[in-house]
Write a structure and sequence with these properties.
525 residues; Alpha-Beta Plaits; Beta-Lactamase; Rossmann fold; 5 domains; five-stranded antiparallel β-sheet; five-stranded parallel β-sheet; elongated
């Protein structure tokens, strides 16, 4: 029986109440005292509220005696536990000795246990982790890679600090929140793209693009590696995302990486992850790679031909049995992912030149797709242009009487777009139309506007060739000649591509390298 006793605020009244209960030899399981209230949990088989009231008649200041379902502290604990159970990630509270004090229902599901807290509370967390629990007790919040019950999680560690007298404090435990690699992978995938992409997003009604869609839809149902070939700007990543979105892995992460954008050692750690202390500057807790984060989903390796022969060998081993090791690690890990790769280069020629492994090629090229260049699907230019013009108008906020309007092309302008060879394919068409819309002051885009935009592109190409073929007037040594070339190249191209990312994309290097070179030569707009 749980009883709430209301009384006057008199010193010693709670002690008198407890003394009466002691004389009755009642077993008190819990007592809670606050101003004017005394809560008591009495364990007695035949006890009634009337018995309690009669015993307390002799005490001066008792106002009321009522039965309650729960003591206030029990009610707070129930609300807190309900709140914890609503959180989908496993949460574990430990003391400074590593003993588990509280868990939520997700923690029980993680271990395949029932929801009774008693099964975990009181056990040492050392029973479930490989590293010492002392590594979890830090005075600052941290995030680290934690192997819990044989699986790797990203653990958010929040220290629990108790205040002592004279302004001192003591670390009394830690709150551990476990986040699965799959959940983190899904969040990362959402950051890479803000909306789902399916084959319906592929714009085009030409014969070769309709054939590509049908073939891709069949391949999406087959859980095998896919190699996508095609010139730069033909939409290889769009096809890869559509393959994933139409497959049985659609609800799992889709993660993409450009193999040409990172040096070998960084690319290896990005794909496979690294263990604690793998190299200088590495996080103490290590870091999961894309393979680990994409568990159950797909990985898109763009520009696979740019991968070094060392990484090609490591990727080949992974494709053989889907096992791998983190950089600097000794533990064998396994992953369930689908590999989709792409390249604009001729892999057969690279194989003949011993620049690409033939055995890896056959592992990647189980299913193959060839994307047609834009010049071979000119019937789609009308649809593509309409789509890009609409998007460009929204981005630059083309308004007419307060309403966004979409510019349209004249017949001559459209004819000019159809006969142009488009070396940059769909990406170039998109950039040209965006440039025209941004500079246009009317709703009609004529052939002259298109011609000016295309001329600008041609000038940029010829400028690049001029820089590449011009011999420096005075060559002191190899380093000075290289610096002179870099300076002239960046000086000519930076005004045409006025951000480090755009210029890096044009020259196919990392934007960090471009930023560093611009600072070195003092080049600015």
């Amino acid at each position: 029986m749980r009883v709430k006793i209301q009384s006057t605020d008199r010193i010693g009244i709670s002690q008198e109440i407890l003394t009466v209960f002691a004389r009755q030899a009642w077993n008190l399981q819990a007592v809670e005292v606050s101003t004017e209230f005394t809560y008591v949990h009495i364990q007695h088989a035949k006890l009634s509220l009337k018995d309690v009231s009669e015993c307390l008649q002799e005490i001066e200041g008792i106002i009321s005696i009522n039965a309650v379902t729960l003591l206030p502290i029990e009610q707070r604990e129930n609300h807190l536990q309900t709140l914890l159970d609503r959180i989908p990630d496993p949460i574990i509270d430990i003391d400074n000795q590593g003993v588990i004090l509280a868990v939520n229902s997700a923690s029980h599901k993680l271990l395949g246990m029932d929801k009774k807290n008693d099964e975990l509370v009181g056990l040492s967390i050392d029973n479930f982790i490989e590293q010492s629990f002392q590594s979890l007790l830090t005075d600052k919040a941290s995030t680290l890679s934690l192997i819990f019950n044989g699986k790797t999680y990203l653990a958010d560690i929040t220290p629990v600090v108790s205040s002592l007298s004279r302004g001192h404090s003591q670390l009394t435990g830690a709150m551990i929140t476990l986040r699965s690699m799959t959940a983190i992978g899904r969040q990362l995938a959402l950051m890479q793209t803000h909306h789902e992409q399916s084959f319906e997003n592929i714009i085009g009604k030409s014969a070769n693009i309709m054939l590509l869609k049908k073939q891709s839809e069949r391949f999406a149902k087959l859980d095998l590696p896919v190699l996508i070939s095609g010139e730069t700007g033909t939409g290889k990543e769009l096809i890869a995302r559509a393959l994933h979105q139409s497959s049985s892995r659609a609800k799992a992460p889709f993660l993409a990486i450009n193999c040409a954008a990172l040096p070998e050692h960084l690319l290896e750690s990005e794909i496979f992850g690294y263990s604690s202390g793998a190299f200088t500057g590495a996080k103490k807790s290590g870091k999961p790679g894309l393979i680990e984060l994409a568990e159950g989903g797909s990985i898109f390796l763009d520009e696979i031909a740019e991968m070094s022969t060392y990484l090609q060998a490591k990727l080949l081993r992974f494709l053989q049995d889907f096992s791998y090791r983190r950089v600097g690690g000794t533990k064998e890990l396994h992953a369930n992912v689908r590999i989709i790769s792409a390249s604009h280069q001729n892999l057969a020629r690279l194989i003949a030149e011993k620049l690409f492994r033939e055995d890896l090629y056959y592992r990647l090229n189980v299913l193959s797709l060839m994307l047609p260049p834009l010049r071979e699907r000119t019937d789609d230019i009308v649809l593509l242009s309409t789509h890009f013009l609409k998007n460009a108008a929204m981005q630059v906020e083309k308004l007419e009487e307060g309403v966004t309007f979409t510019p349209h092309l004249t017949e001559q302008a459209l004819a000019l777009l159809k006969i142009y060879p488009w070396p940059g394919n769909i990406r170039q068409l998109q950039n040209v139309l965006f440039s025209v819309v941004a500079l246009s002051t009317t709703s009609v885009i004529d052939a002259q506007a298109i011609k000016q935009a295309l001329t600008k592109f041609s000038q940029e190409e010829s400028g690049l060739e001029e820089v590449a073929t011009t011999t420096p007037s005075v060559i002191k040594n190899w380093e000075s000649a290289q610096e002179e070339f870099e300076q002239r190249l960046l000086s000519q191209l930076y005004p045409l591509f006025p951000t480090t990312r755009k210029l890096a994309q044009r020259l196919q290097v990392s934007h960090n390298k471009i930023a560093m070179k611009l600072r070195k030569y003092g080049i600015s707009l």
